[in-house]
Amino acid sequence: MQRDTLVSIEGVIKRFGSFTAVRKMDFEIRKGEFLAIMGSSGCGKTTTLRMLAGLEAPTEGVIRLSGKPINHLPTWQRDTPMVWQSLALFPFLNVRENVEFALKMRGVGKAERRRRAEQWLDRMQILEFSERNIAQLSGGQRQRVALARSLVVEPEILLLDEPLSALDAALKVRMQSVLKNLQRETGITFVYVTHSQSEAFSMADRVVIMSRGVIEQIGTPQEIYGAPRTRFVADFLGSSNIFTGKVLAASDSGVQLETADGPIVLKGARLAQPPRQGATATLTVLDTKTHLSMTPPPDATNVLPVRVIGEEFVGATATIYLETPRGQEIRVQKGHEDLVGLPLDIGETLYAHWAPTDSHLVAEA
Ligand SMILES: Nc1ncnc2c1ncn2[C@@H]1O[C@H](COP(=O)(O)OP(=O)(O)OP(=O)(O)O)[C@@H](O)[C@H]1O
């Protein structure tokens, strides 16, 4: 256990009847971090959060909070305060009363309740709406009330399950920075469940990526983006081109792969477990590290003839979708200035290429 570990999840399995929702999960949550749990629908994110909250007990394994097992301990019996952020505000209470509610339940006196509620409403920039009914608030304002209500009790851990999913795109981005700043300023540990990569990667210090009840990777957004551990992660993030083939040669510093589109090479790596010659392996390259040219570059490694099949422009960047003669899809992401002079109409033929040092080996399973 690391020195700054607040929660440790050790060999946790959760079954519902014969269905296993979480399989053998091991990870730690550090004190004061913003941890996002991300994955596609049904992969076990909410179940994991519910086990942390004490709303479900693990079928096997141990969850420790500040070193003490809490498998069957409801939140109110724990020494370390943990709060589940709920968006379900009480419609019969006004904004301030909603925020005061948890303090009232804890027996905090009237004046003190009001002072602390107003302090948080001010911090969330909604003090002016204190006396309003919940029905008179916008989606973003309700979010802020819900946050103030969770934080007024000064938890050490805040559990959030897709808190921004109902908001429109612009408000989502605004609330992301509100949440991130709040977490930084308060130092409260946030465990944040989302299926959105942009939310997880923009806010979290570390991200847990799950698939079908299994953790595929844990790391900082930069680590995961730059070096997806498994093929699933590379696929899920959608920011890499992925090539699977037979290993022609491999050492601890590189791999040569034979794919349907020709050889793909990785060089300059430090591989703990190089694949065996003749085995199937997968190399990836980030779409930002994949380049396009009208003629093949002279030192011809990792060069593929490609046909343009589509393009998408978002702000200052363009994503070009291409296809090799064997139907392998390739994505290239560039700033507009990098694409000047290239024929990008659908059907045009170009060459996609990248440096062997930009290839990356992922685990098959
Ligand atoms: N009480 C339950 N009884 C039976 N199956 C359950 C129960 N709760 C969850 N599951 C199943 O466990 C799996 C994981 O569910 P969970 O809600 O944790 O997924 P999730 O990753 O949060 O998905 P989503 O993003 O759709 O909310 C799902 O297949 C779900 O149907």
UniProtKB/TrEMBL annotation:
PROSITE patterns: ABC_TRANSPORTER_1, ABC_TRANSPORTER_2. Pfam families: ABC_tran, TOBE_2. Residues 7-237 form the ABC transporter domain. The keyword ATP-binding applies. One of its GO terms (cellular component) is ATP-binding cassette (ABC) transporter complex. SMART domains: AAA (SM00382). GO terms for molecular function: ATP binding; ATP hydrolysis activity; transmembrane transporter activity. It comes from the Bacteria. Keywords: ATP-binding, Nucleotide-binding, Transport. One of its GO terms (biological process) is putrescine transport. This is Polyamine-transporting ATPase. It comes from Gemmobacter lanyuensis.
